[in-house]
Amino acid sequence: MLAERADRREHLLRDVFLQDIYAIPGGEKIKECIQCGTCSASCPTSYAMDYTPREVIAAFRAGLLDRVLKSNTIWLCASCYYCTVRCPSGIKLTDIMYELKRLAIEFDLAQEGAKAPVVSKLFVDNVNKNGRVSEAGLVSKFLLKTNPLGILKMVPRAIKLLIRGRMQLIPHRIEGIAEVEKCLAAAASLGLHPGPSEE
Amino acid sequence: MNKAYDRSARLVSRLLNIDLAELDDWNCCGASAYISIHELKAHLLSARNLSIAEKKKKDLVVVCPACFTTLSKTNHYLAEDRKFRRTISTALKSANLEYWGGVKVRHLLDVIVKDIGENEVKSRVKRKLSGLRVAPYYGCQLTRPFGEVDDTQFPMMLDTLLSWIGAQPVSFPLKAKCCGGLLMMTSEEVALGLNKNLLDCAAQNGAECIATICPLCHMNIETYQGDVNKRFGTNFHIPALYFTQLMGLAFGFSRKELGIDEEMVSSRVALEKYLEAAS
Amino acid sequence: MVEKIGVYICHCGTNIARTVDCKAVAGYALGLPNVVVARDYLYTCSDPGQEMIKNDIRESGLTRVVVASCSPLMHETTFRRAVADAGLNPFLFQMANIREQCSWISENRELATTRAKAIVGAAVMRVEFNEPLEVQKVPMNPNVLIVGGGIAGIEAALQIADSGKRVYLVEKEPTIGGYMARFDKTFPTLDCAACILTPKMVSVGQHPNIELLSYSDVTDFSGYVGNFTARIRRRPRYVDEEKCTGCGQCEQKCPLSVLSEFDCGLGKRKAIYRPFPQAVPSTPVIDREHCLFFTKGVCRVCEKFCPRGAINFEQKERFIDVQVGSAIIATGFDLFDASRVKEYGYGKFPNVITSLEFERLTHASGPTVGKIVLKNGRTPESVAVVHCVGSRDNNYNEYCSRVCCMYSLKIAHLVREKTDAKVYEFYIDMRAAGKGYEEFYKRLLREDVTFSRGRVAEITDVAQNSSENGKLIVVAEDTLLSIVKRIPVDMVILSVGLEARRDALQVAHIFRISRSKDGFFLEKHPKLAPVSTAGDGIFIAGSCQGPKDIPDSVAQGAAAAANVLSLIDRKEVELEPTIALIDEDSCSGCKICIGLCPYNAISFDEPSGHAVITGALCKGCGVCVAACPSGAIEQQNFTNRQLTAEVEAICA
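ok -> structure tokens follow
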């Protein structure tokens, strides 16, 4: 039973993943992977990943996306684009990583305690509400959620930044926020498939 | 966190007759953290900025490579993919906006080096930064993935600009390697390791300071330099300055005007010989 | 006269019959004007099928024949021959394609049958206006031009010359031998390249039927099969080939050394030089770009010391014209420029070298007399061999260069044989498809070479720990373990891919050869005609057609020779009569057609003021026919009457 459910979810993941990937210009190149490993060796953080970038594509081919989404791999991608630039098959690996991040959040498969999804969600909320990001707000909310004690560690740095005038405390709300809201609402209905509901 | 970048960029641009007007009511372009959740919406946010710029009949100049990449990607996809174009147009229309793809997105470094050029820049130099050994740090997203601004792995633009203002760009093999970006917040250990490599390489090549073109790189490499030292038992003390701050110095602006005292890793020692006249 | 048309609808087994109702089409055909015989048959191209047609021609007195079956490319020749056999002019036969253009592209039986009827109807209406054309025969000049003196060209030259025909072998370099002359050992047998090549080179040099035109190139090539004229530029060596004995005194005495191209710039040669000791011809050549006499007007030492007075600074470039009946282009390849892959540091790091540079190092007559050393003269303790440089890569060349896996194994073997260095092979796949190749791979596995599956991402000198100091660090994922490795080595050898020659475009223009997407010369058919080109009488052989190893190059050289000898043996060449003809009265002399002809078949006759087509050059492409604003040009077997009849039948 469990195996069946997992199988169905894998199919759904795969379908959604492919649909989105093919929508990116050049996305269909993922099929041309020759498993050469250039991406893994070019990646500055692959040494810390559960699955190397090349393995991610191998897992996709083997119908094992599930385990990749549950791993730490995608959250360690720094979007440096080295893989994309060097790939002999022209695969847009960084964009694939973004897509996997989206899927992991949407299907709620992200690792327990993974910090990156939290940051991203806060970032999105911030932007959707104000049109711009307020770093102070973002960082403090983030720390509250992931590492409340870390706030103590941050305080001295925050103070230093404040003193030097490098941090704004009050978020700036843009005037055209209504425009932004309308666009985003339209996108939600037009989108290839809707993202997770905002908090 | 980068008021200094903003100020120095405006000062320098004004002097070079680059007419920079802040984009009216711009919104976040939807880079990295945003696009990790919503691809379409991120492109929409970029598209809004582009539509505002198009109405003003101006090109869009950015100082942040992440913004540059997201805005460029939006432009590229709009040009290459008809379905994407239709979706974006429909969404924009719901807010009475439209974008026809006519806006060029440029990074300020690109504008200065390619459009303004050597003669103009050199003519403005009042204080040559002779002998200041600078490691030019490009980071990732200026040249990657499109490679339209400079070589994707071994760019030379910033090196060239630094030599124009009289500084001495040192050999910096890791010049386009990653600083970790947002990973400093979410996987600090990994990001610190990356920055250690960068600082190591800069130090080995005799750099007295690092020139940056990205606010996130700047923060990682200097605001967290202390953390790098603590974690790895190193003793780095290499200040990082925005390229516009270095230009501003060369053009004769004061330290205060350029926000040069706002860094965490003080540049006082490195810039000593150039700063007597600059306060 | 009323024509009697025979129509045959082929089933082609089930290829056509599955989708098209052949009986119905045959019935329909019988109802068309002037059709006296209409049959459907299972395999019309078979012997009994052809017999059936011949019988009908003889017994029913057919004057036209239509076969509705596959593409003319398949069996038009078959049926034309059958028809001719029965005494009817082969051009009174018309083929209708109801397979590739009908049954193979339809799923709906009703629609397909309707379509087939239309196609057949069109052919029937058209064939009425077919004219009995006569095939033009032109004499075949038995001389052969071979361009390129590498192993493929040498093989072709020897085969043809041995059969008694005259060969003009043109080689750009001062010596023949091509790339093979620069190799040390060849895979998989580890034969010494020079040992197996030089006997053939000598044979070429001494063969009475081969005129070796070295240090020369072809500047113009005109004419048509059986009757070509080649203009060859003979560059001045400044040494008289007749007088020179190849004693080498001049080379010894010459005071000026420059970098040797043959040694990839790793060694030196004199300004008067032979590229390598066994060069054929053995006459040296003076490099006028560096020679002190030509640049500064001094020296002339070689002239002083030459015992035969063979030095002649007065020599000039001269052009000769030769008449040949066919040509074989065997111009070879060039290597991928490794400096394009910036992350490998070629050109930046002195000890990152290419495979060819390694060949020169390990070669007994190379710059280091066969010793494998680093730029500082020391022996490397560790060597990395990097596969697929510039190949299998969308950023450079998409194709696989075929030979690099094998030569990389050979390189590993040579390093292990000559030094104690640890050797690492970084590969993506191991391609060992030829005879003895897989066994050679096994041999290398036994020789303690460390194989690591994973393409090298970069080569850097930025050390991350003390064991990496002063080394070149190769960064690659071991994909079989999913571990990213940093391997410090002393020397890196890049297995660069093969590319079309830099001057391939010019050569293609001169001989009117097409090129495929990858830049190599285009063969007529990738499987069935790999050494022919679209141009009759012009053949290609060796790596100019695509990356290949020595055995295949030799095979292609021999194949091209066989093709040429077959042509020559026929003594006459038949030309397709479906050429274009100009009606002089209608020609206004506008000259539009002349520039459009891809085969340079049209010229302008000043005195009469109109264009003239050289029938033998015309390939019947139809461009001029369409372009002529006066409608003065018609194409045989594709006349306006014929084509209009077809169109009207379809529209009916």
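The first helix of chain C runs from residue 22 to 30.
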